Amino acid sequence: MTPADLAPHPEGGRFREVFRSARTLRGAGPAGGDRSACTHIYFHLAAGESSRWHRVTSDEVWNLYRGALRLWVWDEGEEDGPISIDLTADEGRFCHVVPAGVWQAAEPLSGETLVGCTVAPGFDFADFTMLHEGDPAADRLSILHADLARLLAPAGSKD
């Protein structure tokens, strides 16, 4: 797997979907439509790149394949602000589950990182929301953890 095998992702980095379940779940999609039971992508970040703040409406499992990754998660209902989870071979931590609807962002700890992201029910861009500069939640994030504002999507950019 090389970066050339992947397409740009709106949140940053590059990706390729490698699995979409043929099995569908009735009523699990937007407006009660059907949804694939599960999807899986390869997701690559080069040194210095980041996955900007975003959320999806399904649970997402991040699996580390290469490199080391800092995953930021933020449940807006929590008063303490975002927390970080480092996925590294050195610490023996290779996966983390981000619950549905929780904001997430990521960045390599050093060098490039390759992860797999499994979403169930399956991912659909209709359920994907980026956190943009100027959004009320972005303003709150900037107050709670000012240095993480660098991971916000620019105001007016497309999801």
UniProtKB/TrEMBL annotation:
Residues in coiled coil: none
InterPro entries: Cupin_DUF985, RmlC-like_jellyroll, RmlC_Cupin_sf, YML079W-like
Domain DUF985 as annotated: residue spans: 5-131
PANTHER family: DUF985 DOMAIN-CONTAINING PROTEIN, RMLC-LIKE JELLY ROLL FOLD PROTEIN
Protein name as it appears in the record: DUF985 domain-containing protein
Species in which this protein is naturally found: Alienimonas chondri
